C-alpha cells in the first residue's frame, strides 16, 4: 500500500467508497463523479502506478481486472447494451489517480472516438 494513495485508502477502508466487488486481488467501487448511469472503477488491491509501471508478473492480475469488469457489467445489466472500459495512462490521457484502474462505463449510448 502507498500511504498517500487515494485508492489504496479506499481499498483499506480508511476513506469511504461505495464498494461493489472485492476479492483477494481486486476491489471495485463507484466513481464519485459518474460519467454515465454505471461508472465503476476496478482496481488491483496491490498498488501499481499505471500501465507504464506494469511488470510481466502482473499479467494475470490485469486479466483479472477485465474478468471482474465483465462480471460487473452483467450484474449492472449493461452487458447486452454494451459498455466501455477505459484505462487512462499518464498526464496526456488525463490520468488523475496514479493507482492503475479500469473505468467500467455504460448504461447510455456513448460517443466515439474520444480524444
Ligand atoms: P483517472 O482520471 O482515469 O485517473 O480517473 C480517476 C477517477 O477517480 C475519476 O473518474 C474520479 O471521478 C474518480 N475519483 C476521484 N476520487 C474518488 C473517490 N474518492 N471515490 C471514487 N472515485 C473517485
Ligand atoms: Zn494505491
Count of alpha and pi helical runs: 2
Please list the strands of the largest sheet in the order they lie side by side. Answer: 1-2-3-5-4
User: Beta-strand level of the residues, as a percent range?
Assistant: 15-25%
Provide mean pLDDT, rounded: 96
- Tell me about the biggest sheet? 5 strands, antiparallel
Distance between the amino and carboxyl termini: 32 Å
Describe it for me?
The chain is built from two helices and five strands. It has helices spanning 6-12, 59-75, and strands at residues 19-22, 26-30, 38-44, 83-86, 102-106. By secondary structure, it is α+β, with helices and mostly antiparallel strands. Strands 1-2-3-5-4 form a five-stranded antiparallel β-sheet, covered by helices on one side. Bound molecules: adenosine monophosphate and zinc ion (ZN). Residues 2, 5, 7-8, 47, 99 line the site of zinc ion.
SSE topology sketch:
Blueprint (H helix, E strand, L loop, with lengths): L5 H7 L6 E4 L3 E5 L7 E7 L14 H17 L7 E4 L15 E5 L9
Antiparallel strand pairs: 1-2, 2-3, 3-5, 4-5
Features:
115 residues; 21% helix; 5 strands; 2 helices; binds zinc ion; five-stranded antiparallel beta sheet; globular; alpha+beta; binds adenosine monophosphate
Question: What is this structure, in a nutshell?
Answer:
The protein is α+β, with helices and mostly antiparallel strands and 115 residues long.
